[in-house]
Write a structure and sequence with these properties.
Largest sheet: 10 strands, mixed
Structural class: alpha+beta
CATH topology of the largest domain: Transposase Inhibitor Protein From Tn5, Chain A, domain 1
Number of helices: 14
Mean pLDDT: 88
Number of domains: 3
Radius of gyration: 26 Å
């Protein structure tokens, strides 16, 4: 248990350091609230305010803790703080190859009545996808540098019933435009599924000197040498010249890929069309990209970048299973989005442990305390969070009662300085204060 206490204190110090890194301009009360919210989410594994308040284990009544958390959640997080968060996330990515994955999900609240701006959405967890009350979630994730973990960089919960609401595509564009200013020196690849096959989106990304990779919808036509053609008919003429080994459902599989250059309507230049043939799909996967293919390695990299799109789906699942994303009880959209933001920072803390130098200090200990079956997995969040939750729950005092060890340094008395005979100096956190004896 003593090892647990030491590890707990080290983790809290690291979490406080990350919060300060995410936004160094936060006031001390706001920093304390951030620590309460993120620690409570990680310890309780829940977005219910009562669970978060109970996890803090404070000496005051649970009702007062709930009230304090709710009042702080009602405050809109300023754009400058969101910008600091994006800048921090980019530090954990590979600057040579930035890969963003964009997708939508649903948050169903079938029995909710008092939640703000509820509307009918499709429940993607069921086969027939019935319409139920809920929200839409637009998300953009970035693959990390070493372990290729999906890091949430932009999330927004929204609905068509909001005032001045335009469309889901507009929310996606807002998310993309919030990231573009940080990519002035780097060229990133944005990966989309077939629902995003829209020339306006392609032109937006191309105008910002970035690359896109979008799965083509079935109804789109292409133009080869000024003649109209069907891309799926063109794919039947090819079988794929390049082999791409992957793992599908924990089993090795082989993809075959090939590509051509063609034009599409309302796009200014030629586009790269990638054909992916596999045994587990009846028809080939066809991708559209403005990135040129100069070698087989370029084509393989594009194919693997699209295959990695499943990681955002796994991140949705991780949030909904481990943190019960759909079980929140706050009613306003501002509070809901703020909770989602703090959950993103909590996941960034997991990435912080996996990707940085803290791996040597925390990673092994957390993995030893986790409930895991396999040694190596693609998504490490489940195993790491299992160990982290066990460490946090072993501490019964809560984060409020955690105090850093104060180290005092006393200056030696100098017989040749009469003032120092009557004064001693104490040093705390780099500040020197004088105290009369």
């Amino acid at each position: 248990m003593s090892n647990f206490n030491t590890l707990f204190q080290s983790l809290i110090r690291s979490l406080k350091s990350l919060i300060n890194k995410v936004d160094p301009t936060l006031s001390k009360p706001t920093q304390k609230f951030y620590l309460d919210a993120i620690f409570g989410i990680l310890k309780s594994g829940s977005l219910v305010l009562n669970d978060i308040a109970f996890a803090l284990n404070e000496d005051i009544s649970l009702k007062k803790v709930n009230t304090r958390l709710y009042k702080n959640l009602e405050k809109i997080i300023p754009p400058a703080s969101k910008a600091c968060y994006i800048q921090t996330v980019l530090e954990y990515a590979n600057e040579e190859e930035l890969v963003f994955i964009v997708d939508d999900s649903d948050i169903v609240k079938p029995y909710g009545k008092a939640f703000e701006k509820l509307a009918l959405v499709r429940d993607g967890s069921k086969k027939d996808s019935p319409l139920v009350l809920g929200y839409l979630l637009t998300s953009i994730v970035l693959l990390s540098k070493k372990s290729k973990q999906p890091i949430p960089i932009y999330n927004h919960i929204h609905n068509a019933t909001e005032k001045n609401y335009k469309s889901t595509n507009n929310i996606t564009n807002i998310g993309l435009r919030s990231i573009f200013p940080f990519l002035a020196k780097e060229v990133a690849l944005f990966v989309f599924d077939r629902g995003y096959d829209d020339v306006k989106l392609m032109n937006l990304i191309n105008a910002n000197n970035q690359h896109f990779l979008i799965r083509m919808r079935r109804s789109r036509h292409i133009y080869i040498k000024s003649s109209k053609s069907d891309a799926f008919f063109e794919s039947s003429k090819r079988k794929g010249k390049i082999n791409v080994p992957i793992f599908y459902k924990s089993k090795p599989e082989m993809l075959k890929v090939s590509h051509i250059e063609a034009k599409i309507n309302n796009y200014p230049s030629k586009i790269t069309i990638v054909f992916i043939y596999s045994l587990f799909n009846d028809e080939p996967i066809i991708l559209l990209s403005n990135r040129k293919v100069h070698s087989p390695d370029d084509l393989i990299r594009l194919s693997l970048n699209y295959i990695s799109r499943w990681k955002i789906e796994e991140l949705f699942r991780f949030k909904k299973v481990e943190f019960r994303l759909e079980n929140f009880r706050v009613k306003s959209l501002v509070s809901i989005n703020n909770l989602c933001y703090f959950l993103d920072v909590a996941i960034l803390f997991l990435v912080h442990i996996i990707e940085t130098k803290y791996q040597n200090k925390f990673y092994i200990s957390l993995m030893e305390n986790s409930k895991r079956i396999k040694e190596k997995v693609s998504i490490e969040y489940y195993q790491l969070y299992s160990g982290l939750k066990r460490i946090f729950n072993s501490n019964k005092k809560g984060v409020k009662n955690y105090k850093e060890v104060e180290r005092w340094e006393y200056e030696e008395l100098n017989l040749f300085n009469s003032l120092e005979l009557t004064t001693r100096k104490r040093v705390r956190k780099g500040k020197i204060k004088d105290k009369k004896r």
